[in-house]
Amino acid sequence: MQSLLFTPLKIGDLQIKNRIVMPPMCTYKAKDENGCPRCFHRLHYAARARGGGVGLIIVEATAVEPRGRIASRDLGLWNDEQQEAHARLVKECVKYGAVMAVQLAHAGRKSECDGLIAPSAVKFSESYKTPRQMSVEDIVSVKQAFVQAAIRAERAGYAATEIHAAHGYLISEFLSPGINLRDDEYGGSFENRARFLKEILSEIKAAVKIPVGVRISADSWAKGDWSLEDSVRLAKELELLGAAFIHVSAGGFFERTDSAPAFTPLYQAGYAKAVKQAVSIPVIAVGLITKASEGEALLLGGVCDGVAYGRELLRNPNFAQAAMSELGCAELIENSYKRAFK
Fold first, then answer.
1. With bands split at pLDDT 50, 70 and 90, how would you rate the model's confidence at 52?
2. First to last CA, the chain
3. What is the total count of domains within the chain?
4. Which three-class secondary structure state does DSSP give residue 41?
5. How high is the mean pLDDT of the chain?
6. What per-residue string of b and e applies to 310-319 under the rule 16 or more CB within 10 Å gives b?
7. d(CA 9, CA 19)
8. Which of 60, 163, 236, 301 has a 20 to 30 Å separation from 308 between CA atoms?
9. What pLDDT sits at residue 331?
10. DSSP for residue 103
11. What percent of the chain has pLDDT over 70?
12. What are the φ/ψ torsions at residue 233 (nearest 5 degrees)?
C-alpha cells in the first residue's frame, strides 16, 4: 500500500506532490532591517525543496508593515523591493518541485519594533512596551496592508498565502477576550472579536486569485479565554468565507498560562482532528511531529490532511528523502540522493 504521506494533496486548485509541509519558522535573517529575503533564505528553503523533498513550503512570518514585524530582521512584503526579492526566492524553490506559500503576519503587541499597536492597550509582558489601542482608522489601514501584501505575494509567484491568526500576534489578539477589551464592533462578543480576521480574509480573497489559508491557535491555554470550541466555530465560518485550508497550532497568547498541555510528540494533534471533523477543507497539523511514521499515523487516523514538520526540517533538510525510504517509497528519491538511503 502506498504511503499516505506521499500521496498528492489538493488545496484549492493547487496540486501538491506530497503531504509534507514546512511550516513558517522565523529565521530573523533580513539584512539591514530591509525585510528582503537574501541568499540565506534562498539556500535555506531550496535545501528543503530539492531531491523530491517537501511538498508545501510556507515561508516564515512576513510582516505586512514595518511596525508589524516580530523583530527588526523579519521578512516583509510592504514594498516592491521586497516583492522582487521574494520572487527570486520563489524561483529558486519551485524549480525543485515545491509549492511555495508565504505567511502574512502582523505582530501586534508582541513586536520588538517601534509603534506597537493592539486591539487594546494591554502589554504582553513586563519586557514588552504597552501598545497603543488601535483606532478604527488603524484597523482599516492594517487590513489594507494585508491586502497589499497578498497582492505582492501573488505577483512574486507564491502559489498561496497564509494569514497568521495564531500565537498571540495581532489577529489572535483580537480573538482573545482576555486581550481584546474593546467595546466597539471589534470587541465583546465572539462575532465582534472574529470580525477583524474575517474581514481580512474576505478582502484578500477579493484581491487575489491564489488560495488563502489561515493559521490559528486552537487554544490560548488560559481558562475562560479562547478555546478549542471557539476555534471549531471559527474554522466553520472561515470555510464559508472561502478559506482554502486551516493550519492548526496552539498557544502563544499569554506569557503565563494555566492549562497548557505537556509538550510531548503530537501534543497538538487533537486540536487538528477536532477542526478537521468540522470542516471539509484541508487541515494541517503541527506540534513536535518528528517521524515519518507519526505523520503517516496522523493521516491514517483522519487527524489531518497535511503534516507540518517544523523542528525536524530545521534539523534535517533531507527529512523527506529519509521518510521516503522509511515508508517504502524509495523510488521517489532522486538518483543523486538514493545511495544515502540504501
1. confident
2. 20
3. 1
4. helix
5. 96
6. bebbeeebbb
7. 6
8. 236
9. 86
10. E
11. 100
12. -60, -45
Instruction: Give residues with Cβ within 8 angstroms of 27, minimum separation 6.
Output: 40, 41, 44, 60
| Grid cell for residue 64 | 505586512
Q: Are 82 and 153 in contact (CB under 8 A)?
A: no
pLDDT digits (tens, 9 = 90+) for 215-226: 999 999 999 999
CB neighbour list of residue 149: distance below 8 Å, 6 or more residues apart: 62, 64, 77, 78, 104
Give the Cα separation of 18 and 5 in Å (integer): 6
Helix (H, G, I), strand (E, B) or coil at 297: helix
Distance between CA atoms of residues 297 and 266, nearest Å = 11
Q: Which residue range is the domain that position 320 belongs to?
A: 4-340
Supply the CATH number for residue 113's domain: 3.20.20.70
Q: What residue has cell string 495564531? A: 166
Q: Cα–Cα distance between 103 and 24 in angstroms, integer?
A: 7
The identity of residue 330, as a single letter, is: A
